[in-house]
Design goal:
18% strand, alpha/beta, Rossmann fold, single chain, 5-stranded parallel β-sheet
């Protein structure tokens, strides 16, 4: 996308995880712009306040956030037509099948267990960026 940066919204209460994902994405796509939030409520508020041209091309959510978790964020934006075309991915340390099914039912395109190494994170970044195109 020449001249236009990819906007990616990420909500995760773990700042270290945000930094790891951000580094991997920016290594693969230096022009990407990450809209970072440390809880689900802030992410929801940002989405609702954004104009149509400022919406992200991808929403990445952690499952386990205090207050409003990733699945609850998905549920709260699920029926809003503005957000339906945006791919949504849940990244989590939890591999619990019920969390996976819950997130997919609430509109996540994928539920991915967070990689535990740099190679895995870089491969994940490529996969996430492909969803923006």
């Amino acid at each position: 996308m020449p001249g236009k940066s990819l906007k990616i919204l990420i909500a995760d209460d773990d700042l270290e995880d945000i930094e790891l994902i951000e580094d991997a994405i920016l290594t693969a796509e230096p022009s990407a712009e990450l809209q970072k939030f440390t809880n689900g409520r802030m992410a929801i508020d940002h989405l609702h306040a954004s104009g149509d041209t400022d919406l992200p091309c991808l929403i990445i959510l952690d499952y386990s956030m205090p207050g409003i978790n990733g699945s609850q964020v998905l549920s709260s934006i699920k029926d809003n037509e503005r957000f339906q075309p945006i791919p949504k991915v849940v990244l989590s340390t939890s591999s619990a099948p019920r969390h996976m099914h819950e997130c997919i039912a609430n509109g996540a395109r994928e539920y991915i267990v967070k990689p535990d190494n740099l190679k895995g994170m870089n491969a994940l970044a490529q996969k996430l960026l492909a969803m923006c195109k």
